Amino acid sequence: MPPAKGSSDEATGPRSGHKRRRRPGAGVRQVLIRIGRAAIRARLLETPTAERIWRTLPIYSTAQTWGRVVLFEIHAETGREPAAKALVEPGEIAFQSEEDRIVIAYGATPISRKGEIRLPSPCNVWAVAADPVAQLEAVRPGDRVAVIAVE
User: pLDDT class for 26, splitting at 50, 70, 90?
Assistant: First the structure.
């Protein structure tokens, strides 16, 4: 049966510029990211990186910070996707393939210019936060990280 007029089987994630395919009847996959006292739910995009990270869950690591960015290493090697980008929006959750780490930006980095969030290299955006990322201000280097699937 063809899609209804005006509908599409593609959608673009908010402010991410990443297209994701919707499978009929497929549910939205979410994770809960706990870092110290902060807890953020995130909706996975339909990208190869999101799929690889989903298959790696649960993930446990240790937080690092760099400016207003929280980073943590994971074991989910994947290459850089064609849509990888160095400029992100608050709430976009990315994977830095060169360092095998997840990057969650909530503000400027030491290399950002005025009004932007610039990561050290192009990263694969694989999820979008469903909760305010400003709570990451409370994260300290060494805080424990847990990433688990939300059913």
Answer: low
* Domains, the chain, ordered by start: 28-150 (2.40.100.20)
Give the tokens for residue 58: 């649960």
Closest by Cα among 42, 64, 48 to 148: 42
User: Quick one: which of 148, 137, 75 has its CA closest to 106?
Assistant: 137
Tell me the C-alpha to C-alpha distance, in Å, between residue 133 and each of 35, 45, 61, 66, 101. Answer: 11, 17, 19, 15, 18
Which residues contact residue 66 at a Cβ distance below 8 angstroms, ignoring those fewer than 6 apart? 109, 110, 120
Which helix (H) or strand (E) segment holds residue 55: the answer is helix 48-56
Model confidence, pTM: 0.81
